[in-house]
Amino acid sequence: MIFVGLGTRLFHLQIVKHSDYDARAWKMHVGVDRRGSRRGDVVLRDGTIVARQVERYILALDPGRIDPARCLLAIDETARALELPEADRRRLHRRLENAGRRGKKLRYLAIGRDLDSEPAQRAMRRLESVLEPKELARGAILRKVHCREYPRGGLEGLGSTIGWVRMGDTDADQVGAAGVEYKLEPYLSGHDGQRKVICDAQRATRLCGPESLDVPAVDGYTVHLTIDSRIQRIAEEELQATLTERRAESGVAVVMDCRNGDVLASASLPGFDPNLVRRYPASELARRRKNRAVENQHEPGSTLKPFIMAAALERGVVTRGQTVWDGGEKTRLLNRTVRDVRDHGPITAEEAVVHSSNIGLAIIGLKLGADGLNDALDRFRFQQRTGVSLPGEAKGKRRARNRWSERNTSISVSFGYGMTATPLQLAAAYSSLVNGGVYYRPRLVERLERGDEVLDFPPTDLGQSVRPDISRQMRDILRRVVAEGTGRYQQIDGFPYGGKTGTAVISKGKRGYVADGRKEYLSSYCAFAPYGPEETPEIVIIVMVAKSKKSYYGSTVCGPVVTGILERLYAKRIAAAKKAEKVASRSLARGETVRRD
User: Mean pLDDT: which of 23-37, 76-90, 163-177, 479-493 is highest?
Assistant: First the structure.
């Protein structure tokens, strides 16, 4: 009976349960090694790398495999090799002692993270001098990990555009947390590979051959942005100087190529350094990480007036030389008082834009009517997301058509209130206004590359916003704004350009426009350059500064930022024009005839 029972048991184990135990045995001895992929870089137009993957090391100890006396000595020697502060060394001692008092074995004690190769190897040499070979082999852990580095951390105004990564489920995992890093996560992250290996019970010894490679790792794409590092730095420096001088709360500057919609610079200040993102307090990071170019939505104020004028010219409700207002600082329209900063006297439709007359634009807006105003906003794609490759883009707001009133809404929208827009929406709309009427979708990503594979993101033409002849007329009107209107104090000798100033009271929501007994203002300046009768503009600049404590007019606060950017971008052209002007002046002084183009 005993032998029959043993035989039955052996038959059950070896025959009936063979496949089950065989699978369990392989599961114990066969492991899978992860073959990590490399996260793609983020590169600017001129080749500047702003985000890249670097190899770092984590050095840790397994106190359960080291003699307790030598473990404390190993911590001290490693801390000295890594030049850790005394407070960190004492903290490591306390962790070890607390685990011992609780009767638990601490199996993982991280000594240093994010280490370069040289200090990591220096620390391992110190451990070799204090630990037994067996303890060193099983108790010292040196692991290579991939970390994200942002070499151009000095471009803090670009931090919210680039974003950063957070750690995933393991030390090797990185997940985009903001900006381009988040939006393009599927392209940047790549795909990990894996390899099956034969290992012992403790998974210390691992055997594998070339045939064991099951799935190769696929690296992420390198993302090429349209941002130009030189233009970005100029925009940040000029904007920061104004924020400091005017003691303003925040500011944003966007530079766009109006010929194709490329975003050449996007400075959002105060910004942050993605390398130090974990060191900012939560409240401070929330304030700094906001990408004001796409997340902020404000009533644009007078910077909206050129679009209303363009729509009126195209529909034929007014002409440039038609007198729309006989003069005065205020008037009643539909039983509502509308005011100007000062009495401009009798003004034409064109002069209403040049001198930024609220009364003149309100009269033009009423001529357009609710349908005409809504059509103008739609054609310039206000209150529509631009589709730029960034998360958190605001849409902008305007009153629903069935709640629109001529008295309140039409008059307010005519001079930039009663609707909101983002700085990037304004930049794209101004580009369309001055480039011949073609609306290009703002483009931040130029292409993706991975080896020989290239994914292009060409400029996208979304249609015509105004006729080319209206666009030419608006360039002339905006040039007059700088030459003789509200922007006349921001002219550049030898370099004509056009623009529009704006000053809007910041709404406090249900509290209205005044809180704590005072108003707060959004100053803005929108410009294009260069200007010439037969010259196509190249760039559009949008600058917005919030809550300036020293003056608040758009020309005074934002004008110096625009002129500073233009003077540095077109320095050679401006210098050549000044030189030519000097030569012409000397020739005139000698009585020579000079032809001027």
Answer: 479-493
Q: DSSP string of 44-55?
A: -TTS-EEEEEEE
| Residue written as token pair 């692991």 | 143
Is the per-residue pLDDT at 387 higher than 70? yes
Would you state the structure tokens that stand for residue 158, as one six-digit string? 């670009």
Q: How many CB atoms lie within 10 A of CB 466?
A: 24
Look at residue 209 and tell me if it is in a domain: no
* Cβ neighbours around 55 below 10 Å, total: 11
Alpha carbons 401 and 399: distance in angstroms, whole number:
6
- CB–CB of 364/349 below 8 Å? yes
pTM here? Answer: 0.85
The total of structural domains in the chain comes to: 2
d(CA 549, CA 570): 31
Name, in order, each residue with C-beta under 8 angstroms of 546's C-beta and a sequence gap of 6 or more: 248, 249, 250, 251, 298, 506, 520, 522, 523
Q: Is the pLDDT of residue 187 over 70?
A: yes
Range of the domain at 68: 53-144
Q: Would residue 341 count as lying in a domain?
A: yes
Q: Is 488 helix (H, G, I), strand (E, B) or coil?
A: helix
149 located within any domain? no
Tell me how crowded residue 563 is: count the other CB atoms within 10 A of its CB.
Answer: 23
Q: Where is the domain boundary, 116, 144, 172?
A: 144
